[in-house]
Hints:
Pfam families: PilZ. The chain is of the alpha+beta class.
Amino acid sequence: xxxxxxxxxxxxxxxxxxxxxxxxxxxxxxxxxxxxxxxxxxxxxxxxxxxxxxxxxxxxxxxxxxxxxxxxxxxxxxxxxxxxxxxxxxxxxxxxxxxxxxxxxxxxxxxxxxxxxx
Length: 118
């Protein structure tokens, strides 16, 4: 007999923080998305149009400064290399890592600022 399965939040390395921002999913074709929440290692987005994305698929995600409070806007755009972990209709759960060292620093600063306001 096996024990109970861990819930998705228990399997996460970092807590996700609410964030409302626009994002661009680069691929063929590019897709527009809304960011729902973010952590140092994951992000949840809602795609705004039909897509053919599958679990396990690698993506590049660019979070745009539109919609953000003025204090957070200088931290963006932020480019993340992502992989689809789960997919429920138009909501995607992604693992992510920064593309460049500067993106890693901006992500850490963004998370720190969101933590202070949460």
